[in-house]
Design a protein that fits this description.
Blueprint (H helix, E strand, L loop, with lengths): L5 E5 L6 E7 L2 E5 L1 E4 L11 H6 L5 E3 L1 H6 L3 H6 L3 H5 L5 E3 L3 H7 L10 E4 L6 E4 L1 H11 L3 E3 L11 H21 L6 E6 L5 H13 L4 E4 L9 H11 L8 E4 L5 H9 L4 E4 L1 H7 L2 E2 L6 E2 L19 H5 L2 H9 L3 H27 L3 H12 L6
Parallel strand pairs: 4-13, 5-6, 6-9, 9-10, 10-11, 11-12, 12-13
Antiparallel strand pairs: 1-2, 2-3, 7-8, 14-15
Helix pairs in contact: 6-7, 7-8, 8-9, 10-14, 10-15, 11-14, 13-14, 14-15
Length: about 375
């Protein structure tokens, strides 16, 4: 069941946009943060918890689900929605990011990428056609084109050849895509080079995808300036009436800056990864609950949050769980951190509706970075 994205409003002073779509009779609004459910689960959380914290689109990982349990098993279950019992929209990535982290440069050919499985060392080949075939069987609502993910440090010469190959792969993937209920997104690459970002965006748009993503900004520690430039170089060449997706980005300030530059949806493993290490987002910056000063702190994580963890537990108790390696600690902080980013997006949407997103950004920065946190 494809959904139709509708552009509702554009900010008067920035490129920020409000959009919406209806899925299973539920209205979803953008800009939106998408929690990552790599193995067809957002780590430690149930479907009910995801719904309670306001999740919309969630991600699943093509590479990991290909290796286990396998796309055929997911297909026999009725697709990802039935397999994981999630009735909201699901996006699957192409598997490219994981594959390129496992492959050597010499193993990248026109056919695809050869690499070794991280599970058992088996030699595998992932091609554009194979990536799309897996995603067709997973039956997600949005599938991603298979692209090369070169580091920002790649030379202009290498990056130019890479994006041209990615364009050829995108066409090959689109040619074999045969799930009529599944949208297919193209991906813009080009590293830090304005001419290549522009070329990649224009040529990808010519292939007429259902939505467009900006990739290559979260590969190997790229700077924020690089990320923002990549967005600025790409956005002017993407159609206004289709979703724009910034891949792998989840720091609060980057969500705000991305929206101001015209991005609609974001994803990142950051909130659950931070949770597993005892870190929590707050209005006044991230805090590390392993810090001894929270041992006798019986206050909430934050007074501004309406999540289950903040309503029911103290910093001292959650710190105890984290230090004792109790799974509940990571669960509670995952609930909180994801809710923090989803609530941030709700606040961003309201600021666009009220035509004051720049003031919202200024106030957020003053609070979040205004003093030294942990």
């Amino acid at each position: 069941m494809k959904f139709i994205f509708k552009l509702e409003q554009t900010d008067k002073l920035t490129k920020a946009r409000l959009g919406s779509f209806i899925y299973n009779d539920v209205l979803y609004e953008t800009p939106m943060f998408m929690p990552v459910g790599t193995q067809a689960t957002v780590k430690t959380l149930t479907k009910e918890e995801l719904k309670e914290i306001g999740s919309g689109i969630i991600l699943a990982n093509t590479y990991h689900l290909w290796l286990r349990p396998g796309e055929d098993i997911v297909s026999k279950a009725g697709g990802l929605h039935k397999f994981m019992n999630y009735d909201g929209p699901i996006l699957t990535d192409s598997g490219g990011f994981q594959v390129f982290s496992l492959a050597n440069p010499k193993d990248i050919t026109e056919e695809g990428v050869t690499f070794k499985s991280h599970l058992n060392g088996d030699k595998l080949l992932l091609t554009p056609e194979k990536s799309i075939a897996i995603q067709n069987k997973l039956d997600s609502d949005i599938a991603m084109s298979f692209d090369e993910c070169p580091p920002a440090s790649a030379t202009h010469e290498y990056m130019e050849q890479s994006i041209k190959r990615t364009l050829r792969w995108a066409k090959r993937g689109k040619d074999v895509h045969n799930n009529p209920n599944q949208m297919l997104f193209g991906i813009v690459q080009g590293g830090p080079y304005q001419d290549l970002r522009e070329y990649s965006a224009k040529e990808t748009v010519k292939l007429d995808f259902d939505g467009y993503s900006i990739g290559g900004v979260a590969n190997d520690g790229e700077s924020k300036e690089y990320m923002y430039q990549a967005i600025d170089y790409s956005i002017p060449h993407l159609p206004e009436n289709k979703i724009r997706y910034l891949m792998g980005v989840g720091e609060p300030i980057d969500l705000i800056e991305g929206v101001i530059r015209g991005i609609d949806i974001f994803d990142c493993v950051l909130p659950t990864r931070l949770a597993r290490h005892g870190h929590a987002f707050t209005k006044y910056g991230k805090i590390n609950l392993r810090n001894a000063k929270y041992k006798e702190d019986f206050s909430k994580l934050t007074n501004e949050c309406d999540c289950y963890a903040c309503k029911n537990y103290s910093k001292a108790y959650i710190r105890h769980l984290i230090v004792a390696n109790e799974t509940l600690g990571a669960r509670l902080l995952s609930i909180h951190n994801i809710r923090f980013l989803i609530k941030l997006m709700e606040d961003i949407r309201n600021s666009i509706k009220n035509n004051n997103i720049l003031e919202f950004k200024e106030e957020f920065i003053k609070n979040y970075y205004g003093e030294s946190h942990e």
